[in-house]
């Protein structure tokens, strides 16, 4: 019996790349799958391949950025398979640009698909899962880019929001038996091929299929009790992403003014400034402290 035998799942952006891998592996594990992609022909091709090897799948061309269409995805799953047990919020857009050259239309589209699409699909699915009363699993696809990455500001912002959303949903749904986790996958996909990053940071051997077992685990009952986690997978590497926290020292003062804030930064905080971005860029002030002083 497969890991997802008897379960029904919706996977968005499943016409190619990571989403296709999640759909194929879920079906092979016994799940009935709604294969969603705004390119419905690609979705149908994946669904047909699943049916060819004896799996169960239907294709959907619903647009996750439209709240009504996103809700219909859950309706399709319940109508076709009688239930919904899992959702993988994989649909996403990405592009590279310097932030001062960013285009309003592309910004809006990226936010609508990556963030609003995740919200629309997730809230519809959790309503149905709560009504069923049998629990379920939502897997949101985030990215390590939310740490900060050059020329990916809008994308990074949406993926940071997805990570935060995951933590809030996990809190809201823990009494409903619905687990919510996020995956930060690193894989060689069409989204990366179109990017210059593919030439310097994404090894060609990183197949989307390498990430699928993590998503299958999080969808399954084997992950019972695992919720509110952000997990990164890159080839051989599997690790948790640390949660944000309030850093020590915490300074207290009855009233803060610009001068006392300045003294706090240059008298105390300068030794505790955080490197930023995936490349761990060091702030200039911290760099000064790290440089050895020259002998007189």
Strand-residue fraction? 5-15%
Q: Please, how many domains?
A: 2
**Shape, please?**
elongated
* Separation, N- and C-terminal Cα atoms: 74 Å
What are the low-pLDDT stretches, counting only 5+ consecutive residues below 50? Answer: 191-200
Number of strands: 8
CATH class (first level) name of the largest domain:
Alpha Beta
Which architecture of the largest domain does the CATH hierarchy give at level 2? 3-Layer(aba) Sandwich
Count up the helices. Answer: 9
Radius of gyration: 22 Å
User: Whole-number average pLDDT?
Assistant: 92
Q: Which sequence of SSEs, written as H and E, runs from N to C? A: EHEHEHEHEHEHHEEHH
Helix content: 40-55%
Could you name the CATH topology of the largest domain? Rossmann fold
CATH superfamily of the largest domain: NAD(P)-binding Rossmann-like Domain
Provide the spatial order of strands within the biggest beta sheet.
3-2-1-4-5-6-7-8
The largest β sheet comes out as: 8 strands, mixed
| Sheet/helix structural class | alpha/beta
GO molecular function: oxidoreductase activity
Keywords: Oxidoreductase
Protein name: NAD(P)-dependent dehydrogenase, short-chain alcohol dehydrogenase family
Family: Belongs to the short-chain dehydrogenases/reductases (SDR) family.
